[in-house]
Design brief:
- The complex is a heterodimer of chains A (297) and B (285).
- By secondary structure, chain A is mostly helical.
- Chain A contains eleven helices and two strands; from the N terminus they run ααββααααααααα.
- Chain A folds into two domains: 44 residues; 229 residues, MetI-like fold.
- Chain A is 77% helix and 1% strand.
- Chain A has a two-stranded antiparallel ribbon with strand order 1-2.
- The longest helix of chain A has 43 residues.
- Chain B has one domain: MetI-like (MetI-like fold).
- Chain B has ten helices and two strands; from the N terminus they run ααββαααααααα.
- Chain B has a two-stranded antiparallel sheet with strand order 1-2.
- In chain B, β1 and β2 form a beta hairpin.
- The longest helix of chain B is centred in the last third of the chain and has 37 residues.
- The radius of gyration of chain B is 24 Å and the shape is globular.
- Classes of the chains: A mainly alpha (297), B mainly alpha (285).
- At the A-B interface, α1, α3, α4, α5 and α6 of A face α1, α3, α4, α5 and α6 of B.
Amino acid sequence: MNKTKARVRINKLFRFLFQFSGLLCISILLGIFGMLCYNTIAFFTKISPIDFITATQWAPSSGGDTSTYGLLPLLVSTLLVTSGSMVLAIPLGIGTALFMSEYAGAGMKQWLKPTIEMLAAIPSVVIGFVGITIVSPLISALFGLPNGLNALNGSVLLAIMALPTIITISEDAIHAVPQSLKEASLGLGATYWQTLRGVVLPAAAPGIIAAVMLGMGRAIGETMTVLMATGNTLAFPKGFFDSIRTITATIAIEMGEVPYQTTHYYALFAIAFVLFIITMLVNILAEHIANRIRQFQ
Amino acid sequence: MKPTASRQESPAPYLWLLAGTLLVCLFLFNILFFIFYRGFPALSFDFLIQYPTEGMTQGGILPAIVGTVLLTLMTAVVALPFGIGCAIYLNEYAQDTWLTRSIRAAIRNLAGVPSIIFGLFGLALFVQGLQFGTSLLSAGLTLGLLSLPYLITTTEEALKTVPNAMREGALALGATQFETIRDIVLPQAIPGIATGTILSLSRAAGETAPILFTGAAFFITDVPRNPKEEFMALPYHLYMLSTQHQSIELVRPFAYGTAAVLITLVFLLNLTAIIIRKRYRTHHQ
């Protein structure tokens, strides 16, 4: 009898422990959000939000009154390098997904899938290193620049990093298009390519858009590659050949040296908060789009 | 009737898509070939087992290798109990309530949080808040949190593959729900959980941004002896050697060597995961 009681008690205890682990996930997300909010508010008690959003310079200087904390150059840099990476990664990613799903035979797929997985497994610091050692000399030779550490370099690297996400999720979406739709189109006399372009791609569009957005979310939040390969010049970016400094790179460079609980310290949390909100919105939107196809099917 | 010209299947789309796909593959092979080709001269047994000397221009990367291994173990210790616990809760206990839905939403959103923000959270909570300082402990906790979403998702997938009939059989024989999970569900799901665990740890081992301000050091004279010490790590070492060192050109061979060792480590972990997954599948068929 006692033994049964003990078993029931253990059962209850573990149920509680498992539930606690689940609650921990919520508290981590809330903790991150709260930590960013708290420090951002501390920042806004010293610098007005309007200055933060409108100033066109990020020039923190330790101690003096001359510091400016302008979000714009960092935000524009992040958006510039991300949009560049998407221009490269979207056609290549969707094309590869289409090929893997609709053209590649079983034998070829067996090789392609692990290749994409391996590309995804390469640590971002190695991609950044490749940016310094391969992409940078290539860019400077191709465009006659003194060095190749610029926004274009960052875009190429981020495209490589976003590709596995875009390919894997788009391929799932394309693969999920019902065979009957394809057969109907082919039966009406369309060629295979016309069927893919006119029927399969539109039917898979929501999934593909979700894939692109998830890839973009990854690119926006990526730190090491842009930190190593874009030159990190603090100026308002004018084009892809300019050296830029993204939000992530700024946090990585300055957080290590900034004294605890200074305006500069809080400023870095404020830009992190902006980054957090952007990636969160991109991910929620992607999920929303993906959910709509699930209902549709 | 002959088909009109526009209806004829042109080989162009196939060739274009093939070219794109090959280009993507080429990225991977180029990166791998280049790193190993340039890294090969630096690689030797001494490189793996010696301490760096003469300002990193001589010697090896032993403390960085040991640091990364210790850090990954620390990450596993932090992430495994909570990750597996959360997956068990979601798959075995949870009904479709608002609480469960919020846990799932939190996990999905955590997966999208940039790694540098995890670094800031680790700095604010573990390094400064809990006074762990910049240490193996703080960095391991930070990477543990970062690994949770992926670990939970893969573990839940593994738990889902266990047939319900097995659970019902155990429960009908009088086992409590915990005993069912411990003796029936978990042993069945272990290969899947192991695969997911190894993959999430291989990701954590390659992360740099979260350990920048939570404990990684450029140079220490010894491997860490306790969790409150700072440590060297392969990804951080590669970052410092390739961008922050005084004589970058002089240490470039060492940077290639470090990159080659890091990639080898990550791929070995991935390969282990793939082998486990394959064996398990053939075993089941």
